[in-house]
Protein backbone atom coordinates (compact mmCIF):
# COMPACT_ATOMS: atom_id res chain seq x y z
CA UNK A 1 0.00 0.00 0.00
CA UNK A 2 1.29 3.43 -0.90
CA UNK A 3 2.19 5.79 1.90
CA UNK A 4 3.50 8.48 -0.44
CA UNK A 5 1.71 10.45 -3.15
CA UNK A 6 3.20 12.26 -6.14
CA UNK A 7 0.99 14.88 -7.84
CA UNK A 8 2.20 16.03 -11.24
CA UNK A 9 1.16 19.48 -12.48
CA UNK A 10 2.34 19.50 -16.10
CA UNK A 11 2.09 23.12 -17.11
CA UNK A 12 5.27 25.16 -17.41
CA UNK A 13 5.82 28.84 -16.82
CA UNK A 14 7.85 29.01 -20.01
CA UNK A 15 9.70 26.75 -22.42
CA UNK A 16 12.39 24.76 -20.72
CA UNK A 17 15.70 24.36 -22.61
CA UNK A 18 16.65 21.01 -21.13
CA UNK A 19 13.50 18.94 -20.62
CA UNK A 20 10.82 17.50 -22.87
CA UNK A 21 7.82 19.37 -21.48
CA UNK A 22 7.95 22.25 -23.96
CA UNK A 23 4.59 21.14 -25.33
CA UNK A 24 3.11 21.76 -21.89
CA UNK A 25 3.44 25.55 -21.99
CA UNK A 26 -0.04 27.08 -21.96
CA UNK A 27 -1.37 30.62 -22.07
CA UNK A 28 -4.31 29.63 -19.92
CA UNK A 29 -5.58 26.61 -17.98
CA UNK A 30 -9.19 25.68 -17.21
CA UNK A 31 -8.58 25.27 -13.49
CA UNK A 32 -12.07 23.94 -12.76
CA UNK A 33 -11.79 21.17 -15.36
CA UNK A 34 -8.29 20.29 -14.25
CA UNK A 35 -9.24 20.25 -10.60
CA UNK A 36 -12.14 17.88 -11.21
CA UNK A 37 -9.96 15.57 -13.29
CA UNK A 38 -7.12 15.47 -10.75
CA UNK A 39 -9.55 14.70 -7.95
CA UNK A 40 -11.00 11.83 -10.00
CA UNK A 41 -7.52 10.46 -10.70
CA UNK A 42 -6.72 10.74 -7.00
CA UNK A 43 -9.83 8.83 -5.96
CA UNK A 44 -9.12 6.03 -8.42
CA UNK A 45 -5.60 5.55 -7.12
CA UNK A 46 -6.73 5.65 -3.50
CA UNK A 47 -9.16 2.80 -4.17
CA UNK A 48 -6.23 0.65 -5.29
CA UNK A 49 -3.36 1.93 -3.13
CA UNK A 50 -5.06 3.12 0.04
CA UNK A 51 -5.01 1.46 3.43
CA UNK A 52 -2.38 3.34 5.43
CA UNK A 53 -1.84 7.03 6.19
CA UNK A 54 0.23 9.09 3.81
CA UNK A 55 3.66 10.04 5.13
CA UNK A 56 4.54 12.39 2.28
CA UNK A 57 3.03 14.25 -0.67
CA UNK A 58 5.09 15.87 -3.40
CA UNK A 59 3.78 18.39 -5.93
CA UNK A 60 6.14 18.33 -8.91
CA UNK A 61 6.21 18.60 -12.68
CA UNK A 62 6.17 21.74 -14.76
CA UNK A 63 5.62 24.75 -12.52
CA UNK A 64 3.52 23.46 -9.60
CA UNK A 65 4.04 26.60 -7.54
CA UNK A 66 1.76 28.33 -10.05
CA UNK A 67 -1.08 25.97 -9.13
CA UNK A 68 -3.99 27.89 -7.64
CA UNK A 69 -3.69 27.49 -3.85
CA UNK A 70 -7.39 26.58 -3.72
CA UNK A 71 -6.70 23.57 -5.96
CA UNK A 72 -3.72 22.52 -3.81
CA UNK A 73 -5.95 22.74 -0.75
CA UNK A 74 -8.74 20.74 -2.40
CA UNK A 75 -6.31 17.97 -3.40
CA UNK A 76 -4.82 17.82 0.09
CA UNK A 77 -8.23 17.71 1.76
CA UNK A 78 -9.33 14.89 -0.53
CA UNK A 79 -6.09 12.97 0.00
CA UNK A 80 -6.47 13.25 3.76
CA UNK A 81 -10.04 12.00 3.58
CA UNK A 82 -9.10 9.07 1.33
CA UNK A 83 -5.85 7.94 2.97
CA UNK A 84 -5.50 9.79 6.25
CA UNK A 85 -2.33 11.72 7.12
CA UNK A 86 0.57 10.71 9.30
CA UNK A 87 0.85 13.28 12.15
CA UNK A 88 4.25 14.37 10.77
CA UNK A 89 3.33 14.30 7.09
CA UNK A 90 5.76 16.07 4.76
CA UNK A 91 4.01 18.05 1.99
CA UNK A 92 6.53 19.42 -0.49
CA UNK A 93 5.99 21.66 -3.48
CA UNK A 94 8.59 22.38 -6.18
CA UNK A 95 8.97 26.06 -7.01
CA UNK A 96 10.81 28.11 -9.60
CA UNK A 97 12.35 31.22 -8.07
CA UNK A 98 10.32 33.84 -9.89
CA UNK A 99 8.63 36.72 -8.16
CA UNK A 100 5.26 35.56 -9.51
CA UNK A 101 5.57 32.23 -7.78
CA UNK A 102 7.13 33.56 -4.60
CA UNK A 103 4.07 35.71 -4.09
CA UNK A 104 2.05 32.48 -3.91
CA UNK A 105 4.03 31.03 -1.00
CA UNK A 106 1.91 32.34 1.87
CA UNK A 107 -1.31 31.08 0.28
CA UNK A 108 0.28 27.69 -0.45
CA UNK A 109 1.38 27.39 3.17
CA UNK A 110 -2.16 28.14 4.30
CA UNK A 111 -3.39 25.44 1.88
CA UNK A 112 -1.23 22.86 3.70
CA UNK A 113 2.20 22.84 2.03
CA UNK A 114 4.88 22.64 4.73
CA UNK A 115 8.07 22.22 2.69
CA UNK A 116 9.33 23.95 -0.47
CA UNK A 117 11.98 22.74 -2.90
CA UNK A 118 13.34 25.77 -4.74
CA UNK A 119 15.08 25.40 -8.10
CA UNK A 120 17.80 28.03 -7.70
CA UNK A 121 20.35 25.99 -9.74
CA UNK A 122 23.05 28.63 -9.39
CA UNK A 123 23.93 31.81 -7.53
CA UNK A 124 25.78 33.12 -10.59
CA UNK A 125 24.06 35.05 -13.40
CA UNK A 126 26.35 33.73 -16.13
CA UNK A 127 25.69 30.15 -15.06
CA UNK A 128 21.95 30.77 -14.97
CA UNK A 129 22.05 32.11 -18.52
CA UNK A 130 24.02 29.04 -19.62
CA UNK A 131 21.44 26.80 -17.94
CA UNK A 132 18.64 28.65 -19.73
CA UNK A 133 16.92 29.83 -16.57
CA UNK A 134 14.52 32.75 -16.68
CA UNK A 135 15.44 34.12 -13.25
CA UNK A 136 18.63 35.87 -12.24
CA UNK A 137 20.57 35.34 -9.02
CA UNK A 138 18.96 38.30 -7.24
CA UNK A 139 15.47 37.04 -8.02
CA UNK A 140 16.43 33.58 -6.82
CA UNK A 141 17.76 34.87 -3.52
CA UNK A 142 14.65 37.00 -3.01
CA UNK A 143 12.49 33.91 -3.54
CA UNK A 144 14.64 31.97 -1.07
CA UNK A 145 14.23 34.68 1.56
CA UNK A 146 10.47 34.70 1.00
CA UNK A 147 10.31 30.91 1.26
CA UNK A 148 12.32 30.89 4.48
CA UNK A 149 10.01 33.49 5.98
CA UNK A 150 6.95 31.32 5.24
CA UNK A 151 8.04 27.67 5.51
CA UNK A 152 9.90 25.94 8.32
CA UNK A 153 11.45 23.48 5.88
CA UNK A 154 13.12 24.82 2.73
CA UNK A 155 15.53 23.08 0.37
CA UNK A 156 17.11 24.32 -2.82
CA UNK A 157 19.22 22.83 -5.58
CA UNK A 158 22.44 23.87 -7.26
CA UNK A 159 24.09 22.49 -10.37
CA UNK A 160 27.87 22.32 -10.49
CA UNK A 161 30.63 20.91 -12.70
CA UNK A 162 29.66 23.43 -15.35
CA UNK A 163 32.02 24.00 -18.30
CA UNK A 164 35.14 25.77 -17.08
CA UNK A 165 34.07 25.84 -13.43
CA UNK A 166 37.09 26.00 -11.14
CA UNK A 167 37.43 24.54 -7.62
CA UNK A 168 37.70 28.08 -6.18
CA UNK A 169 34.49 29.18 -7.90
CA UNK A 170 32.53 26.15 -6.65
CA UNK A 171 33.98 26.42 -3.14
CA UNK A 172 32.90 30.06 -2.93
CA UNK A 173 29.43 29.40 -4.32
CA UNK A 174 28.75 26.38 -2.11
CA UNK A 175 30.06 28.19 0.98
CA UNK A 176 27.68 31.03 0.24
CA UNK A 177 24.80 28.58 -0.25
CA UNK A 178 25.51 26.91 3.09
CA UNK A 179 25.45 30.30 4.82
CA UNK A 180 21.73 30.63 4.05
CA UNK A 181 21.09 28.02 6.73
CA UNK A 182 18.67 25.65 5.01
CA UNK A 183 18.69 22.16 6.51
CA UNK A 184 18.67 20.35 3.15
CA UNK A 185 20.50 20.89 -0.14
CA UNK A 186 20.42 19.04 -3.46
CA UNK A 187 23.72 19.40 -5.31
CA UNK A 188 23.81 17.90 -8.80
CA UNK A 189 26.66 17.56 -11.24
CA UNK A 190 25.73 18.72 -14.74
CA UNK A 191 24.90 15.73 -16.92
CA UNK A 192 24.46 15.84 -20.68
CA UNK A 193 21.29 13.89 -21.44
CA UNK A 194 20.62 12.66 -25.00
CA UNK A 195 18.05 14.68 -26.92
CA UNK A 196 18.51 17.86 -24.90
CA UNK A 197 19.74 21.26 -25.98
CA UNK A 198 22.96 20.62 -24.09
CA UNK A 199 23.65 17.43 -26.05
CA UNK A 200 23.12 19.33 -29.30
CA UNK A 201 25.43 22.14 -28.17
CA UNK A 202 28.19 19.68 -27.26
CA UNK A 203 27.84 17.89 -30.59
CA UNK A 204 28.11 21.19 -32.44
CA UNK A 205 31.12 22.31 -30.41
CA UNK A 206 29.22 24.95 -28.47
CA UNK A 207 30.94 23.97 -25.22
CA UNK A 208 33.11 21.24 -23.76
CA UNK A 209 31.85 19.42 -20.65
CA UNK A 210 34.10 19.40 -17.62
CA UNK A 211 36.32 16.31 -17.65
CA UNK A 212 35.90 13.54 -15.08
CA UNK A 213 39.00 14.41 -13.03
CA UNK A 214 37.94 18.03 -12.56
CA UNK A 215 34.38 16.97 -11.76
CA UNK A 216 35.74 14.57 -9.13
CA UNK A 217 37.66 17.46 -7.52
CA UNK A 218 34.43 19.46 -7.26
CA UNK A 219 32.64 16.43 -5.82
CA UNK A 220 35.32 16.17 -3.12
CA UNK A 221 34.83 19.85 -2.26
CA UNK A 222 31.08 19.26 -2.04
CA UNK A 223 31.52 16.47 0.51
CA UNK A 224 34.13 18.43 2.49
CA UNK A 225 32.02 21.58 2.88
CA UNK A 226 28.66 19.90 3.50
CA UNK A 227 30.15 17.55 6.10
CA UNK A 228 31.76 20.51 7.89
CA UNK A 229 28.41 22.37 7.85
CA UNK A 230 26.55 19.42 9.41
CA UNK A 231 24.71 18.48 6.21
CA UNK A 232 26.25 15.12 5.28
CA UNK A 233 25.25 13.30 2.12
CA UNK A 234 22.50 10.76 2.74
CA UNK A 235 22.20 10.10 -1.01
CA UNK A 236 24.74 10.76 -3.74
CA UNK A 237 23.43 14.28 -4.50
CA UNK A 238 21.36 15.10 -1.41
CA UNK A 239 22.61 16.53 1.86
CA UNK A 240 20.71 17.17 5.06
CA UNK A 241 20.94 17.79 8.76
CA UNK A 242 20.08 14.44 10.41
CA UNK A 243 16.29 14.22 10.60
CA UNK A 244 15.79 16.67 7.72
CA UNK A 245 16.14 14.16 4.87
CA UNK A 246 13.44 14.27 2.19
CA UNK A 247 10.91 11.70 3.38
CA UNK A 248 9.31 11.59 -0.04
CA UNK A 249 12.51 10.92 -1.96
CA UNK A 250 13.48 8.27 0.58
CA UNK A 251 10.33 6.43 -0.50
CA UNK A 252 11.81 6.13 -4.01
CA UNK A 253 15.32 5.22 -2.87
CA UNK A 254 14.00 2.60 -0.44
CA UNK A 255 11.85 1.19 -3.22
CA UNK A 256 8.59 1.59 -1.36
CA UNK A 257 5.23 1.91 -3.09
CA UNK A 258 3.95 5.36 -4.02
CA UNK A 259 0.90 6.61 -5.90
CA UNK A 260 1.35 8.98 -8.83
CA UNK A 261 -1.42 11.08 -10.38
CA UNK A 262 -1.54 13.70 -13.12
CA UNK A 263 -0.13 13.69 -16.67
CA UNK A 264 3.02 11.63 -17.05
CA UNK A 265 3.09 10.55 -13.39
CA UNK A 266 4.76 7.24 -12.58
CA UNK A 267 3.93 5.07 -9.58
CA UNK A 268 4.66 1.73 -7.95
CA UNK A 269 1.79 -0.31 -6.58
CA UNK A 270 2.13 -3.88 -5.33
CA UNK A 271 4.59 -5.03 -7.99
CA UNK A 272 2.97 -2.96 -10.74
CA UNK A 273 4.58 -0.01 -12.50
CA UNK A 274 1.88 2.57 -13.22
CA UNK A 275 2.11 5.29 -15.86
CA UNK A 276 -0.36 8.08 -16.62
CA UNK A 277 -0.86 9.55 -20.10
CA UNK A 278 1.86 12.13 -20.62
CA UNK A 279 0.27 14.70 -22.94
CA UNK A 280 -2.12 16.84 -20.87
CA UNK A 281 -5.02 16.63 -23.32
CA UNK A 282 -4.68 12.85 -23.64
CA UNK A 283 -4.67 12.49 -19.86
CA UNK A 284 -7.71 14.74 -19.56
CA UNK A 285 -9.58 12.72 -22.20
CA UNK A 286 -8.69 9.47 -20.41
CA UNK A 287 -10.04 10.77 -17.11
CA UNK A 288 -13.27 11.82 -18.84
CA UNK A 289 -13.64 8.29 -20.25
CA UNK A 290 -12.39 6.17 -17.38
CA UNK A 291 -12.34 8.38 -14.27
CA UNK A 292 -8.56 7.95 -14.19
CA UNK A 293 -5.59 8.93 -16.35
CA UNK A 294 -3.81 5.56 -16.41
CA UNK A 295 -2.09 4.64 -19.65
CA UNK A 296 -0.32 1.52 -18.44
CA UNK A 297 -0.13 -0.87 -15.51
CA UNK A 298 2.78 -3.22 -16.05
CA UNK A 299 3.57 -6.19 -13.83
CA UNK A 300 7.20 -6.19 -12.77
CA UNK A 301 8.97 -9.51 -12.45
CA UNK A 302 10.70 -10.29 -9.17
CA UNK A 303 14.13 -9.94 -10.80
CA UNK A 304 13.23 -6.53 -12.23
CA UNK A 305 11.95 -5.35 -8.86
CA UNK A 306 15.15 -6.54 -7.20
CA UNK A 307 17.29 -4.77 -9.78
CA UNK A 308 15.35 -1.52 -9.41
CA UNK A 309 15.52 -1.72 -5.61
CA UNK A 310 19.28 -2.21 -5.66
CA UNK A 311 19.94 0.49 -8.24
CA UNK A 312 17.97 2.94 -6.11
CA UNK A 313 19.04 1.79 -2.66
CA UNK A 314 22.76 1.71 -3.33
CA UNK A 315 22.59 5.46 -3.96
CA UNK A 316 21.96 5.89 -0.22
CA UNK A 317 24.76 6.36 2.28
CA UNK A 318 23.11 3.63 4.40
CA UNK A 319 23.06 1.24 1.47
CA UNK A 320 20.68 -1.73 1.22
CA UNK A 321 19.69 -4.44 3.69
CA UNK A 322 19.94 -7.54 1.50
CA UNK A 323 18.09 -9.84 3.91
CA UNK A 324 15.17 -7.46 4.22
CA UNK A 325 14.96 -7.02 0.44
CA UNK A 326 15.29 -10.76 -0.16
CA UNK A 327 12.52 -11.53 2.33
CA UNK A 328 10.26 -8.95 0.72
CA UNK A 329 10.78 -10.34 -2.78
CA UNK A 330 11.02 -14.03 -1.94
CA UNK A 331 14.59 -14.37 -3.20
CA UNK A 332 17.73 -15.68 -1.50
CA UNK A 333 19.93 -12.81 -0.33
CA UNK A 334 22.97 -14.16 -2.18
CA UNK A 335 21.05 -13.91 -5.47
CA UNK A 336 20.93 -10.10 -5.26
CA UNK A 337 24.59 -9.07 -5.33
CA UNK A 338 27.59 -10.19 -7.34
CA UNK A 339 29.60 -11.34 -4.31
CA UNK A 340 32.89 -11.57 -6.20
CA UNK A 341 32.61 -7.98 -7.42
CA UNK A 342 31.53 -6.80 -3.97
CA UNK A 343 34.62 -8.41 -2.40
CA UNK A 344 36.81 -6.90 -5.12
CA UNK A 345 35.49 -3.37 -4.57
CA UNK A 346 35.57 -3.75 -0.79
CA UNK A 347 39.25 -4.52 -1.14
CA UNK A 348 39.71 -1.33 -3.15
CA UNK A 349 37.84 0.71 -0.57
CA UNK A 350 34.98 1.49 -2.96
CA UNK A 351 32.22 -0.62 -1.33
CA UNK A 352 31.40 -1.91 2.15
CA UNK A 353 29.46 -4.68 3.85
CA UNK A 354 28.15 -4.68 7.42
CA UNK A 355 26.26 -7.90 8.13
CA UNK A 356 23.34 -8.00 5.71
CA UNK A 357 23.75 -4.38 4.68
CA UNK A 358 25.91 -3.36 1.71
CA UNK A 359 26.74 -0.01 0.19
CA UNK A 360 29.19 2.19 -1.69
CA UNK A 361 31.84 4.15 0.19
CA UNK A 362 32.36 7.91 -0.22
CA UNK A 363 35.44 7.06 -2.30
CA UNK A 364 33.33 4.88 -4.57
CA UNK A 365 30.47 7.33 -4.93
CA UNK A 366 31.98 9.30 -7.85
CA UNK A 367 32.10 5.96 -9.71
CA UNK A 368 28.58 4.99 -8.67
CA UNK A 369 27.09 4.28 -12.10
CA UNK A 370 29.95 1.97 -13.05
CA UNK A 371 29.87 0.22 -9.68
CA UNK A 372 26.12 -0.37 -9.78
CA UNK A 373 26.42 -2.11 -13.13
CA UNK A 374 28.86 -4.58 -11.60
CA UNK A 375 27.53 -5.00 -8.07
CA UNK A 376 23.99 -5.98 -9.03
CA UNK A 377 23.85 -9.72 -9.75
CA UNK A 378 24.14 -10.56 -13.44
CA UNK A 379 20.89 -12.53 -13.45
CA UNK A 380 18.99 -9.46 -12.26
CA UNK A 381 20.56 -7.07 -14.78
CA UNK A 382 19.77 -9.37 -17.71
CA UNK A 383 16.31 -10.45 -16.52
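Sequence proposed for the structure above (383 residues):
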Amino acid sequence: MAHALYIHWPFCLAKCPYCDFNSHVRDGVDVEAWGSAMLADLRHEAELAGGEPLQSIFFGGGTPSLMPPALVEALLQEAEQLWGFDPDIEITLEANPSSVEAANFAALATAGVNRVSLGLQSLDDDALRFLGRLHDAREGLDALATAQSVFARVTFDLIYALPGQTPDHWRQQLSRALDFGTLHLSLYQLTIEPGTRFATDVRRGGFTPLDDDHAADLFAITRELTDAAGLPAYEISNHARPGEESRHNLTYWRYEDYAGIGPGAHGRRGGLATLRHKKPENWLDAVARNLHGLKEERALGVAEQASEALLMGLRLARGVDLEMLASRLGLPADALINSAKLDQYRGLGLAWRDGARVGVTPEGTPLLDALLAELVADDLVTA
